Amino acid sequence: MTEGSPTISGSLVIRAENCRGCRSCQLACSFAKTRVFNPGRAMIVMERHLSDGMSAPMIKPIGCDLCGGDPACAKACKYGAITYEKGPSQEKVVVRLSSKEGS
Amino acid sequence: MTRPTSWGVRVNLSTRRVDRAPVEQALSDAFLGGSGVGWRLMADALRPGIDPLSPENIICINPGVLVGTLTPGTPKTTVITKFPTTASEDGKHFIGACTAGGRYLGIALKRAGCHHLLITGKADRPSFLRIRDDAIDVVDAGEYWGHGIEEVMIDLVEREGPESGTIVIGTSGENLVRHALTIVDRGNSLGRGGLGAVMGSKNLKAIVVNGTGGVEVADPDAFIAASERMRDSIMRWPRREHWIDLGLAAGWSTFKHTQYPGIWPKDRWDELYGEETRIETVENVIACNSCILGCRLRWMTKGGEFDGEVGYGSPFSKSATSGMLLGVEDFRKVIHFVADANSKTGIDFYTTTRLIDFVTKMYEIGRLTSSQTGGLKLSRDYDTYEKLYEMIVTREGFGDVLADGWMRLKREFGLDPQEYWYAGICKGVDFIYDARPSSFHPLMMTFTTRPRPHHGGSHTMTNSRNKTIEEIRDQVERWGLPEGTIDRIFSESDYSGKFNVGRYTRYMEDMMRVKNAIGLCTIYTYQGLLFGNDIAELYSAATGHKMTALGMVECGERISNVAKVMNVREGFSRVDDAVPEVWFRPMDSPEGRIEMQDYYQTKILAKQDTDRILDDYYDERGWDLETGRPTPARIGKLGLGSIASDARGAL
Fold it and tell me: Which site among A17, A18, A19, A24 would you substitute to test the B interface, given the most B Cβ atoms closer than 10 Å to its Cβ?
């Protein structure tokens, strides 16, 4: 979100290095939006790093409405790669580079 | 409530014809869908007696019913084919199923509407099968032929996009090595027993799948509520943190006892291959799709001649047992074979290293001579092992004999696989585990009774030693087994102790059919985290077909019987289910004498004991004790009369 956007109720925090690539976030997101499991309809793109076999979730800020304050992706992620932090925020998505920062 | 429809897709590589047809609901209901339906389709489609490496063989690929949904962990795709491993001296070949997870393949198949993909024929040149939803094409793969698995996988994903699911064979599959397997996505091996050679025989280097559709469930509210409840409950498993930290590197403290090959003292093994050694190479632990207990490893070798080598999969248990058997003290040298097999050649590490162990030892004691090996001198050293590995992959010289497996060694040189000293061999397949250090637990039994000896998906809690009767009883109750059945499982005998392994094994196999049909990873039943009642709840909500745990086991029984009847048609009978002879020979180790005992280690088992346990297994199945084949009465009761008619003479 750009500066000056209205304050929103929380942020999705992405810690890509915790991602195990299970794609639960994509499945949960698409299901929350469409009642059908379809990674192609999710507001999350899973980056596939062919150099090292790892993955990283990338959330599309346009289209993501944080599920009204209870994001399905954060609930589905069991590895701490996507968490939801409640509280006034200017950013829908915050990317943290290390799990040690702020965790 | 709308019930989702499954589709069967048939591809003939010779004619390039593709047919697509919906699967009748009644068929899905009777066989659960997924690989259950796959088996039933194969019973009609696969002509008995064909050569597994001929165009007539069929590769039947079935993502599980729950693959592509959000569950605790249902990533599995199951493939059914006739395997090229020579299973008996008279040249029989078993028809079996193999499973693999992965992050992309299963979901991609489901999204492309390929619930049962049957591939037959032979492409006229090296090719790959490209699936983009309805558009299915046989594409020239000349540029890939001769190249390693990972290289080809990366190129295919770059071409077809990051959501692509892949199955790729390596050079050993191209060369029709009978124990060549395939790799799904990255590091998930599929098809011990020769699926890689079957693909190679069809000129099929790879399958790459993309789909845009979604996976629907019949009752979305009930499904997601049940799924979230189960996921949250498994998150409370006390060992989860350790498990997801170490993945498949976990478990050394048990493994070093249950898979001990008996050559080095255990503390020496600890030092060379133990947990501390493992941990230093683990880089990442990766999950298959939907799984909350991710366990696949990305490792990197540190130091030594293979410094910096990266691999995917699970190198540790493999390298530890074969390393001791081959007498290689530097674990990195053995892990190199795992890395090379998974990323390049696609050869089965176990079979290859065990064959090498066997022939080098036979050479050393003069049972094999250089005139038989084409002039090659076989020493018990790493250079020889590397040379033999390469020769098997390329079928060069003596490697050609080894590439045809254990039975050819017997036929050509009189070296009987039953003489091999570790783990044993049944139906031409060498086992990973040995029943002497681990005891005669039900998984051991399934190695001998299943049509395809090695088979993912069958683990239950009894894979761990000494689970209490109460724990095992609680488990089978949650699978809905009736009280009378449970009483039979726990009736004491002088040959199987307090726990009747033969009777239990029948249900364990049927549970395996259920797990494979729905795509559930076997870790969840191995660790006692999900049971039949949980699976039935998810299945009912997903398919709209109300099922109980017992109902699922009954479908599993039907699937097991289809598999058995198909193998009876190939000539298999009780003699092929024999327990490996080595299990009855005491293992004299530096730790003392180790002999095969019953599950609770109360007595040493002799052949007459395991024969009676096998009797009980057949009895529990309602099969003939003498032939080990299904009786017409049982087949009729299961509604399989039409399949059995082909085999009636044999039943």
Answer: A24
Write the pLDDT tens digit of every residue in B572-596. Answer: 999 999 999 999 999 999 999 999 9
The reply to whether residue A38 touches residue B163, judged by beta carbons under 8 angstroms, is no
Under 8 Å between Cβ of B334 and B306:
no
Question: Which residues are bridge partners to B338 per DSSP?
Answer: none
B177 touches chain A (CB under 8 A): no
Tell me: the pLDDT tens digits for B44-78? 999 999 999 999 999 999 999 999 999 999 999 99
Contact B214 A36 (CB under 8 A): yes
Q: What is the pTM of this model?
A: 0.97
For B412, other C-beta atoms within 10 Å of its C-beta total: 11
Which two three-digit tokens encode residue A85? Answer: 């932090």
Out of A30, A46, A78, the one facing B235 most closely (by C-beta) is A78
Residue A102 has pLDDT above 50, yes or no: no
Q: Which of A76-90, B135-149, B605-619 has the lowest average pLDDT?
A: A76-90
Length of chain A, please?
103
Q: Tell me how far CA of residue A55 lies from CA of A59, B76, B241, B382, in angstroms.
A: 13, 19, 20, 36
The arithmetic mean of pLDDT across residues B195-209, rounded, is 99
Q: Which of B497, B507, B506, B512 is nearest to B610 (CA)?
A: B497
Residue at token pair 């280097």: B205
pLDDT in tens, B452-501: 998 778 899 998 888 999 999 999 999 999 999 999 999 999 999 999 99
The verdict on A30 touching B (C-beta cutoff 8 Å) is yes
Q: How far apart are CA B650 and CA B578, in angstroms?
A: 19
DSSP B218-282: S-HHHHHHHHHHHHHHHHT-TTHHHHHHHGGG--HHHHHHHT--SSS-HHHHHHHHSHHHHHTTE
Report the pLDDT value the prediction gives residue B650, as an integer from 0 to 100. Answer: 60
Rounded CA-CA distance B57/A43 in Å is 42
Q: CA-CA distance, B258 to B126, in Å (whole number)?
A: 43
- Cα(A29)–Cα(A35) distance, integer angstroms: 9
Is any Cβ of chain A less than 8 angstroms from the Cβ of B233? Answer: no
